[in-house]
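Question (not urgent): is this output format expected?
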Amino acid sequence: MSIPAEDVVVPEHVRLLARGADLECVWRNDYGGLTFRATGTAEPFYIKWGPRNLEFTLSDEAERMRWASGWITVPTVLDSGADDTHEWMITAALDGLSAVDPRWIAEPATAVRAVGEGLRAMHEALPVRECPWEWSVPSRIANAERRGIVVPESLRTAPAVDRLVVSHGDACCPNTLEPYEVPLNGSLRALLGPLGRDLRTAGGTNGGRLAPRSLLMQDYPVKREEYS
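Got this back:
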């Protein structure tokens, strides 16, 4: 995953979705997905576009962001859709810069701390009892098997849940905006799951690489070594 350093060919369907706006590719993920910033026609907006996959869809993401918007600030979903091979989602822009923007790469401690602060705020705001989606071990096994993945018996027993929260699902610096009150950007999966899932994901992708993991977890009343 990275901010493209070279020019990116804009898919024809993305141009149609942009309706004449100027497009800049601001992100490329590992699955061939692209995110474009669209400007010049009205208020700026983003187009997220990529190949369809069976693990998680942009229509799922759009549904979850609409749900979460009742409690936290998330990008407003303007449109979403799919064809036989690709899917897309259009969202209004929020103020702020991605935590992997060069502006914040130059201040890694600030970037990593913001991930932890954003997660803490999100976990406290989103209501567990009202979340209709889950990320339990049985649901993950079922998802994997639908995709033809053979799950070994040793991975079918769920560990104890430390604390049940509405998890982000992809808590990392690229999905964090700074500065922002609840600095969470895209890829919100809003699934019921253990607190440790978000903390380990965030710690594995950010903590220790950009700045010490202790900065990420300083707002959490947990033993840091349990989430290493």
